[in-house]
Design a protein that fits this description.
The chain contains 2 helices and 8 strands. By secondary structure, the protein is of the alpha+beta class.
């Protein structure tokens, strides 16, 4: 049996001010309070529930994390126009210019919950309470929390990309 299935990838338009504030803390230096903001969620259905810590679960997590980071880096690179632009405003962050009117295309490293290339003291993990607004459940087990999918139960790992701006999004590299 396979440890996990190829991801189901969905795009969510972010209009909720609370979610925008959370992402603004995660991505300092970017104004996420206005303008088009999207969250891409890559859902990986796993063979094991992510409610316990054992060698098999840790191996599945590592495999999914590695696969997602590789795909997400390719996805982000696809929208970059050039190298770091020191003329763009920021708080010591690395800013890039992006194509198609995108102001930001950034993935969240699933192993740490931190942005892939932007320094941040905040994290966004797959057990963040905000995910309830996207139809997920979050269960507390005393020692830890787990994400709950409506069909797959706890057999899920979710990974994220945040986009600010109106761009044509090609999800093929993420699938």
């Amino acid at each position: 049996m396979v440890d996990y299935h190829p991801p189901t990838v969905t795009i969510h338009k972010i209009e909720d001010d609370r979610i925008r504030r959370e992402f603004k803390e995660l991505l300092p230096g970017y104004d996420l309070s206005t303008g088009p903001l999207k969250l891409i969620i890559s859902e990986y259905q796993t063979s094991e529930p992510m409610t316990m810590i054992n060698e098999k679960v840790l191996n599945i997590r590592a495999q999914v994390h590695n696969e997602f980071v590789e795909k997400a880096q390719k996805f982000v690179e696809k929208y970059k126009i050039g190298e770091h632009d020191p003329n763009l405003p920021g708080l010591g962050c690395i800013f890039y210019r992006y194509s198609n009117a995108a102001e930001l295309v950034e993935f969240v490293d699933p192993a740490t919950g931190k942005p892939g290339s932007i320094p941040s003291s905040t994290t966004f993990t797959d057990t963040n309470e905000i995910l309830r607004k996207f139809g997920y459940g979050i269960e507390e087990f005393g020692c830890c929390k787990a994400l709950k999918h409506s069909e797959w139960d706890f057999r899920i790992i979710a990974c994220f990309i945040i986009i600010k701006g109106e761009i044509d999004i090609d999800l093929s590299v993420l699938q």
